[in-house]
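dumping this here before i forget
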Amino acid sequence: MMFTSLKFLVFFVGIFLLYWFVFKRTYKSQNIILLIASYLFYGIAEWKMLPLLIVTTVVFYFLAIGIQTAKTEKRASVLTTLGVIIGVGVLLYFKYFNFFIQSFSDFLNAIGLQTNWHTFKIIMPLGVSYFTFKLISYVVEVHRGKMEACRDFIAFANFVAFFPTIMAGPIDRPQKFIPQLLQKRTFTYYGGVDGLQQIIWGLFKKIVIADNLSPFVDNVWANLGDSSGSTILLALILYSFQMYTDFSGYSDMAIGLGKLLGLRIQKNFNYPFFATNIAEFWRRWHISLTGWLTDYVFIPLNIKFRDLGNFGMALAIIINMVLVGMWHGANWTYAVFGLYQGLLFIPLILSGNMSKKQKLKLNRWNGPQLKDALKMLGIFMLYTLGTIVFRADNLSQSWDVVKGLMDVSLFSIPQGMPKGGIMCYLFIIIMLFLEWRNRSKEYAIQPVANVEDKPIIRLIILDLIFLLGIFVLGNFGANQFIYFQF
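structure:
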């Protein structure tokens, strides 16, 4: 039941009406209908794994209470460690266990020790990468004293299973999200308009741009041997836009749905294609994941390696980025992707610019000056080259792409066009223009804060234009969201 389907529209409208008109008296009654909706949403997608979600929620609920009420620091540390082990263990078993078995078996076979090991039939639960990270951060933050253990089980279960974010994030932090569930929510005019606007923007990016780029990109990757170097390069560039519009589109829709329910979800993208260095790019891309790993992996490692100077920082960054890559799936391609991204940080570290935020210099047309524009283009292309291994099924296929790019046909005219042709390119340009023009806003078409007091004719016209584009040019039902697989 995807956000882009008619089934989900009917589902959400029903929940919305119950939430605001039938169960509106107290936050507790709203939380009950919200939890029923979340479990129903997850159960429809994968009912066999619903017990796992519920059991882990119960376990971590009591673990956190045990950590807070522990009479000694040693006992609290033991319970926290147990929580981390359980969370990581669930993730490793369902997502990586077969990968480790197969990789170790391949290694033994490669050195002449023949094995006949078989992998297990393990079903990877949808959203496991997201809800396990939520649970781990919860017990860690309770142990650090950054928040109280939640005694309201319904509220805590909603934090874990909140249906707009359970499948593909963002990964909300417990100290920011749980308090919202423990207070009365009221529906506001601006909150409703803001939420609907963000949903429309997300739908536009997903259905009009991402899903129209997908057939062309998939076809090139399926026929690398028959594609010219220029066509492969074009597919790589368009894949970067496809992945961005697909995932940020999902995040926008999830955040917009949260706003319609009176809840604030963490921002997940901050116009990453306007970054002028790789550190800034990753501070803007998949913010909830990179922020999570920065807090719980990079900072502790950086402190541990601080006596090693720049080498220690580089080592911490590389380990962190390899984990960012591996978080996406059980494949060596993701590890190589993370390693590649980590190595891109080394020039920043050596130059002492790792933590410096670049202030953009604008030209007289309010665009970036040529120097900054070239930096943005360079970072985009460096990231795009990294997607060679990210998109590939295996390392061998990624090498086929590299060989294709080194062919003389790189200088020929690309073959084929994305679905929608020139219009698809035009919509990418429109998206980038709106994002640049409104880069100080949370998303590109966010209404002004005092929309209640001003005529909204322009807002209505803008929405009609986007909705017309969605219904006329949208590729409905063509593809699930890319990050569902992660």
